[in-house]
Amino acid sequence: MSLLYWLNVLGLAVFAISGALMAARLKMDPFGVIVLAALTSIGGGTIRDIILDVPQVFWIEEVSYLNTIIIAALVTMVFVNYIRKIPEKLMLVADAAGLALFSVLGAQKALLYGAPGSIAVVMGVITGVAGGMMRDVVCRQVPMILRKDIYATASIVSCITYTGLLMLGVSDKTSSLVGIGVGFVLRLAAIQWHLQLPAYQIGKRS
Amino acid sequence: MSLLYWLNVLGLAVFAISGALMAARLKMDPFGVIVLAALTSIGGGTIRDIILDVPQVFWIEEVSYLNTIIIAALVTMVFVNYIRKIPEKLMLVADAAGLALFSVLGAQKALLYGAPGSIAVVMGVITGVAGGMMRDVVCRQVPMILRKDIYATASIVSCITYTGLLMLGVSDKTSSLVGIGVGFVLRLAAIQWHLQLPAYQIGKRS
Amino acid sequence: MSLLYWLNVLGLAVFAISGALMAARLKMDPFGVIVLAALTSIGGGTIRDIILDVPQVFWIEEVSYLNTIIIAALVTMVFVNYIRKIPEKLMLVADAAGLALFSVLGAQKALLYGAPGSIAVVMGVITGVAGGMMRDVVCRQVPMILRKDIYATASIVSCITYTGLLMLGVSDKTSSLVGIGVGFVLRLAAIQWHLQLPAYQIGKRS
Fold first, then answer.
1. pLDDT tens, position by position, B132-168
2. Do residues B31 and C187 lie in contact, with contact meaning Cβ atoms separated by under 8 Å?
3. Which of residues 99-118 of A touch C (CB under 8 A)?
4. Which domain holds residue B48?
5. Which family does it belong to (chains A, B, C) (predicted)?
6. Strand residue runs (E) in B85-163
């Protein structure tokens, strides 16, 4: 199996973990946990594939992806059974990994289907943020994108880094790993030190 | 008209009733009621048809489906006008019927388009739960899937029963009626006696 | 460029402004503002194009649409920087313009792809309300459709006016401008004078 396959598996697994941990906090039952893990994992890529109008969405084309999600959700459930408190930071880190991975994988698939660079960046952001956004909306949590720490920014930086390196002639493999790394580290730093871009300063200059 | 047609009409009608009753509680105006009823009714099947990439989504292919929704919403509005209090249990029962019907109908359509059994189960769950989930999110209610009573489980049981019976050589008609019946009865029992699967027991063994 | 192009640009710009103003109230950072503006702007039309199964969704076919959204979001950010308080009424007016424009543009595109009149009205309503609905759900605001003032009604009136005039033989240009005007004025009047249709009167006659 290719690097692309394993990056997809990794992205699905970490998003499934973030969904299952959220479900744990809300005390959902096992099938509810699996449904929420799947929604988080396949949500973004499904919207990407539908907009790109690919012949088959990725989890129909490659059935092992669904197994990945179920295994990740089950392992998370067993793990959670042995701890006292849901580790919120683990959920944020899993979400950050999924965000960076799927942003780059989304941009990559868009380019593969002939989209220009600007569209690839938009498709990457959709792929990276939509699954987590649906998880948060269904679970009635504050969506990550509304929190003050860098989030949409990390996704956009990942996509632009990846697309930019490709255009500079860097290999797809190197570009994708650097793109993923940059977005992931940026988001981790934001989680750790509450990095923020300056927000709207209403009335600042009035 | 075939059994399939009438099962679809029934599913659309009961989901439309559940949406219209929710709208009644929120005192929406008549056109808002119809829009919410339609969102609940066609939401799940539309996502299914888009992912399966069928030539036309079901409510464009068969225009009488939209009439079903409008009639069900209007009848609900008239009915509500004559009662003192919105019957919450009626909303739950209508939602349960839609959940069981659309879970099986979703799995069936996926199989018709050549999906393997595992994908059919996933498509069934999406078809069964998505419309109600959108209704609850837009109306700012706790999504059914987050409540403690069996919900996602009933959908999955319906889909697996239907797909399993088919694989054992049972006719499509019998398999679908049994699949729908099992899921509906399970969900009704959950509503009546607050049946729950064991949830995450955090710290249970620590 | 055609009238159709400019009406689309206008609809995207006003919805982007409504999204950016909402983001300003929630103190999102610049990239969050752009993502929310884009979600609001392209949300409805993307769902329309996916359901109609057009060869390419509108913002991939015409890349200048994305530039429109980014410029509108940036201008809004600069503007907001110079004022003391986010003008809520401006947000409502921008949303009203987007609602009327995209309702008619959605119905028009459905007719162009061969849909009958009733389907065109449904597609128009989806195009008009979905983007704003996603904006409100992600931002955890009360969706416009749940507020008491005429909202879904304005969209439906726009779509029916446009489709009806076309069927009476009126030119597409006149029909669309009248359809947009009627819906926009109706919604503005509802904002100004809190016009409401009679809602469910529970127990009124009991």
1. 999 999 999 999 988 878 999 999 999 999 999 999 9
2. no
3. 115-116, 118
4. 3-193
5. Belongs to the UPF0126 family.
6. none
